[in-house]
Amino acid sequence: MAMDSFRDSNSINNLPDEILGKILSLLPTNVAATTSILSKRWRNLLTQIDSLYFDDAMVVYPNEEEALSGSDRFCDFVDKTFALLSNSHMKKFSLRHVPRLDHYDAYHRWISTAMEQERGLLELHLHADPRCYFVEIERELFTSNTLVKLTLSGEYSLEVKRVFFPALKSLSLLSVSTLNYDNYCCLLDGCPALEVLYIRDAGHLDSPCCGAFVKSSSIKRLVVFVNLPYSKEHHKVSCFEAPSLVYLDYSSFVFGNYQSVDLESLVEARLNLRLWESYNNYGSSDDDGDDYSDYIVHHYYGDVTNLVAGITNITTLHLSPDSLEAIYFLCKSMPVFNNLLNLYIESNKEKGWQVMPLLLKSCPNLHTLVFKGLVHKVTNRCGDLCACIPKKQRVIVREQEEVCCLLTCQVKVLEISEYRGSFQELKQVRHFLGKLECLETVKVGVVADTANRNDFLRAILLTLPRLSSKCNNIQFI
């Protein structure tokens, strides 16, 4: 009896309706809807659900033929659920499906019903799997006074005369290849309070409409991922006009020209710029005495000069291995980064550090230098930043008696991750410690499979000579 009383007192049925409604909102909508058969109270609880997620993968078809050709099962399920929730306060509506011609009226009906909620929809997420058809939202006026998040993904597109989302803060456009430039611009123009814009152009053969042009006076955070390796002819001009932007994460094959770059408020940038052509063995180290093969001029498509010049106000910069190549080959002149305090470099054994000496000389106030891995492609263009200068190049450097770029570098914190303790890595660390005059702190993170050698690796590193008298400690992180 006591046990039954304990169970009753701890039953989920004793929770307030508001709490149960929140729990139901976290469940897949098809599961939440089935709870209506439990009791009259649970049926009434459906009105507490504020988040709906419909995916036609939820529907179980009797055979593969019906699943491929489509049926009314998914439409019936969504319509019945909407009927059950006619009095609910819907805050979030997500729809994922394979587009079917005979269901277009239903798609528009559901979207309209969700957006016309009496107390206002907050989030709308629409995804149509790429198939033969696309879903076009056709409206004279596409508007909501309450919507704060909008996602259009896959085969969703717009055909509208006017867009107005005065409260929208976050917009995601994910591989919407059928969205044309005019409607894209109309969408951005209709979001005066937009702060976060996420763009992904990938998985199709069309031009990178959204990822090529971004013009917004309000956005503060921008993430652009363009991966269209078979659309080089469409990568002619790119434009970024976002004077309020403070964070940029940009990944793309390079464009022929970055025509207009207005990013005056930018604080942090992550760049992954990829060349269309492989530079093969350009600048690779050798000691064969044949300078011609080492200095042969290659011509590459693209120009990132304006893009690099447009981010000079940043304080933090992250560069991928591909970006190091792209900036070296396609930036006609390196600007000065007077405000840059933190520089993050990702290394790859197939990519060189050719641009690094010039880059460091262009960062007069750099405080923290971080390397994700030290192993890189050894070239005769890495200059005095690298400990791997070929013998032939060392002779040239000594003859020219140039001042090492590291000696003039103001870096106080050097951080290295994915350290394995190889001979090449040890040489590079020795080179850094022996040349960085202002260095105070060194942080080293070892890869997992060498963690048991921490004490050994640390002991070796502690024996390395240091130019800076303030560098008294090497921390393992």
TrEMBL record:
InterPro entries: F-box_AtFBL13-like, F-box_dom, FBD, FBL60-like, LRR_FXL15/At3g58940/PEG3-like. Residues 9-56 form the F-box domain. Pfam families: F-box, LRR_At5g56370. This is F-box domain. It comes from Arabidopsis thaliana x Arabidopsis arenosa. The lineage of its organism: Eukaryota, Viridiplantae, Streptophyta, Embryophyta, Tracheophyta.
